[in-house]
């Protein structure tokens, strides 16, 4: 079960490993390598809203970045079996994310939250949105009536999501974020100062030139490549859909405390 309160760094690392948010994660090595190869071969479903051009055509280059920033096994000959996310890298990235959230709070910035993984990360984003609002930020309300080929772009608990068939939808696409930003521009409203998201929501916002931070799994390399190039400000490595969404609560508490946004800070 999740540990109560705000964990120390060491306690959080242990928790990430015990819940498989990091450490030995559920995503197998063969799935990771398949996604790296597809990205390198130009499959835009794996570009997560980014425009990678011809810069990442060698899957070994992709693997090298993922080993450095996520902690997957760096042996190109290791093709099958268990793969890993280094929990220390996860916590390091949470620290960088906390600094950007603190900047948003200090500047009373406009912040947009979105998730393509509502079954895992919706409440992480919701809690972060609530903390920034309490600190004086404006949480961006998306325009009504937005949709993509996959479904409707909606907002629940301050977090933009894709809805399809009365169900919140898992998506890697950047098109929902495109719909939001186009809708804001059409209404003459300012774009966000910061986007806190994941998947294509984060990637498209970063490609559009907005400050963007996000969470990403070890089989979703595009955001880490974008971070390495400076397009995306922060990519936090984690398994983005573990057994219970409550397992992310200690991570969220740690993040908000590091950002000075926890209650009483």
TrEMBL record:
<protein>
    <submittedName>
        <fullName>Phosphatase</fullName>
    </submittedName>
</protein>
<dbReference type="Pfam" id="PF15698">
    <property type="entry name" value="Phosphatase"/>
</dbReference>
<dbReference type="InterPro" id="IPR031423">
    <property type="entry name" value="Phosphatase_SCO2771"/>
</dbReference>
């Amino acid at each position: 079960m999740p540990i109560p309160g705000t964990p120390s760094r060491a306690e959080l690392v242990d928790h990430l490993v015990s819940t498989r948010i990091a450490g030995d994660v559920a995503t197998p090595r063969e799935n990771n390598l398949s996604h790296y190869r597809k990205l390198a071969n130009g499959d835009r479903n794996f570009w997560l809203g980014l425009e990678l051009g011809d810069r990442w055509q060698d899957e070994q280059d992709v693997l090298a970045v993922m080993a450095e920033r996520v902690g997957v096994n760096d042996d190109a000959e290791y093709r099958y079996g268990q793969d890993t996310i280094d929990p220390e890298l996860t916590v390091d990235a949470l620290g960088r994310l906390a600094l950007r959230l603190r900047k948003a709070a200090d500047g009373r910035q406009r912040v947009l939250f979105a998730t393509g993984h509502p079954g895992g990360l919706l409440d992480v984003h919701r809690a972060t949105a609530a903390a920034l609002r309490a600190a004086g930020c404006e949480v961006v309300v998306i325009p009504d009536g937005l949709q993509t080929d996959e479904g409707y772009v909606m907002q629940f608990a301050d977090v933009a999501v894709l809805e399809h068939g009365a169900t919140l939808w898992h998506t890697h696409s950047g098109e929902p974020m495109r719909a939001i930003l186009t809708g804001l521009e059409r209404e003459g409203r300012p774009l966000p100062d910061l986007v806190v998201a994941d998947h294509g929501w984060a990637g498209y916002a970063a490609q559009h030139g907005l400050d963007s931070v996000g969470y990403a799994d070890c089989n979703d390399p595009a955001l880490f490549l974008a971070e390495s190039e400076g397009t995306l400000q922060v990519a936090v490595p984690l398994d983005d859909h573990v057994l219970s969404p409550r397992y992310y609560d200690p991570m969220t508490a740690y993040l908000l405390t590091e950002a000075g946004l926890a209650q009483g800070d």
